[in-house]
Design goal:
Length: 244
């Protein structure tokens, strides 16, 4: 496998779970309880209940509480050495952070992020892992706007063709001249993503950024009839299915 991103979280061992992550500018327990309140509002009509449990240990021990991977009935809120809390879920195709972060930013009037870092790679006779580098910044709902994007940047391989997209006003720290690079995939790189996140107060690809001493993560678990419907996957099975 050809991998052009060095320094991914946990050397990419927990992809696809950590290929996409959400971040909320809020404490971990407060974020988990607010998310649970939202989900409980949906519980009656969808036939499930919500439980929130404290989790301790190393980052990998905490992530293991998502196993087996399935349809997103479990998610984690992980404290960091910053004002931000990380969000991941147990969908076997990878964390769905866009909708939850967009909603939580609007509901709580805070900033939330979606961060995507996927190396572009191909395995002979096994398919392609399409690369992507993305940063979405969500904020409180803004009058006159249909959405609450503050800033969105994306370089992705769309089925064999590299595309670059942006929305919103650039932050002062952005390398805006790079967006004119001749090669599309150079317009927003993994190194640029890391730099932008440092300016926002995050180091999400460093293991020691998570679970500071004495901290607890919070596991939100949905239970109900629907949990027996979806297929379950080990991390290895999910990785194989995603060409990792």
């Amino acid at each position: 496998m050809r991998q052009e991103m060095k320094g991914l979280l946990l050397e990419d061992r927990w992809a696809p779970v950590t290929s996409t992550m959400g971040f909320l500018e809020l404490g971990a327990e407060q974020a988990a309880q607010a998310f649970a309140t939202w989900q409980r509002g949906l519980a009656t009509s969808r036939g499930f209940t919500i439980e929130v449990l404290p989790v301790t240990g190393t980052l990998e021990q905490v992530l293991s509480r998502l196993l087996p991977l399935s349809g997103g009935e479990r998610c984690l809120f992980i404290p960091t050495r910053s004002a931000w809390t990380a969000y991941v879920d147990n969908q076997w195709t990878g964390t769905d952070a866009a909708s939850p972060m967009r909603y939580m930013a609007r509901r709580l009037s805070i900033r939330c992020l979606r961060v995507v870092a996927v190396p572009h790679a191909q395995r002979k006779n096994q398919g392609v892992r399409y690369g992507a580098v993305m940063l979405d910044v969500f904020g409180p709902e803004q009058p006159g706007k249909l959405h609450n994007y503050v800033r969105a940047l994306e370089v992705a391989n769309d089925g064999g063709r590299w595309v670059f997209e942006q929305e919103g006003e650039p932050f002062p720290f952005e390398q805006v001249e790079q967006y004119q690079a001749r090669r599309v995939r150079d317009r927003f790189t993994f190194e640029m993503l890391k730099d932008y996140l440092r300016h926002l107060g995050l180091s999400p690809f460093e293991e020691d950024f998570y679970m500071p001493p004495g901290a607890r993560a919070w596991l939100l678990q949905k239970t109900g009839p629907f949990t027996t419907v979806g297929q379950e996957y080990t991390l290895e099975e999910a990785r194989a299915a995603r060409v990792l």
